[in-house]
Amino acid sequence: MAKSITQEFVKGLWEEIPPFRLVLGLCPVLAVTKTVENGIGMGMATTFVLLCSNILVSSLRNVIPPKVRIACFIIIIASFVTVVELLMQAFTYPLFLKLGIFIPLIVVNCIVLGRSEAFASKNGVLASAADGLGIGVGFTMALASLGALREIFGSGTLTIWETPIALFGPAFKPFTFMVEAPGAFVCLGLMLCVMNFIGKK
Amino acid sequence: MREMVKMVIVLTILSSFSGGLLAAIRSGTRDRIEYQQLKFVKGPAIRSILEGCSNDPIVDRFKMPDGEAERSFFVGVFDGQPSTLAFETYGKGFGGDIGLMVAVNVENDDIVGVGVTTHSETPGVGSRAKTEPSFAAQFKGQPLLEAYKVKPDGGQVDALSGATVTSRGVAAAVTQAGQVYKRLKPELAVKLESFSK
């Protein structure tokens, strides 16, 4: 446990980047990454929940009785998820419509509960905050890169601030397979393959 | 025993704290959420049928009880006069309810425009009720207080080819809008009177 705060943060970006290294939280990863924007929105919502729940869990870690710790974690996580849901409805309604059911489903995202259980309940507040932020940013990067790849090939555009930018000329025929469900699996598999290939060297 | 009590106390405190937090945020964002929902779900239809009005109909809305239910009315200001009211009614379509926004000119009771807000009709067939401007345009300028029927039922509305059920639903929604308007007309007039001042 001699890691510094920076190390806790950085490990989430590459070494333990959730969808690619730990292969966790795949449900939103596969479902919402049709466009970059969806991916980033989902990632940011998850990051907020991770950061807040990690801070709260680690500051309450000496109060929470071990036998009901999971129940306590779920209360904390579910509260923050509802906060995110309300805020998204109030301020980014179109994005909320696109992400739909996947926002409430952050409650059962195993990354969030996993970080509370495996890290925040055993470490200090500052380290937990760094860990939550790192994992969250890593998750956002993973979703954004997968979303970008699928959107570029699947519809030939990149969506930034709700305006799709066409990348190719009119002769480009979209590779629609990529934005559909099987494309998500294939794309994720290829990215895992590249990550492992780089990691081996 | 002491551990049991501690578990109960910790869980209770945690739950009530989170309940309080959520209630606070909920009441803080409620108006904004309602506005956003209206803007993005019903907004496009309202804007298209109240085209050219000088106010924001979603901001200038009011609610009025209609029997058991409560209806929202959107005011459109034309030439400085709050002369147009838009409200939503429902008709039975092929795949469920069709939401229809109907705008009426309160001076002569003519329909200013109609627009489909929400529907679950077959894409490319029934969905043309929303996408084909000529279908909605035939209601423009017609008196609202009449009963509307599609031509196959002996009425006056040109049905969308292949989507008679959808067209029938829209016609029923317009008819229903007429009935609502007839019922509430005196109260609406009073409301608009106070609006212009």
Please, could you describe this protein's structure?
The complex is a heterodimer of chains A (201) and B (197). Chain A is built from nine helices and two strands. Chain A is mainly α. Chain A has a two-stranded antiparallel sheet with strand order 1-2. In chain A, helix 1 packs parallel to helix 8 (125-155), helix 5 (69-91) packs across helix 7 (110-120) and helix 7 packs antiparallel against helix 8 (125-155). The model of chain A has no long low-confidence stretch (mean pLDDT 84). Chain A has one domain. Chain B is α+β, with helices and mostly antiparallel strands and 197 residues long. Chain B has one domain (46-196). Chain B is built from four helices and five strands; from the N terminus they run αβββββααα. Chain B has helices at 2-49, 128-131, 133-137, 164-196, and strands at 61-66, 69-78, 81-92, 97-105, 111-116. In chain B, strands 1-2-3-4-5 form a five-stranded antiparallel beta sheet. In chain B, strand 4 (97-105) and strand 5 (111-116) form a beta hairpin. Chain B is globular. The chains are: A mainly alpha (201), B alpha+beta (197).
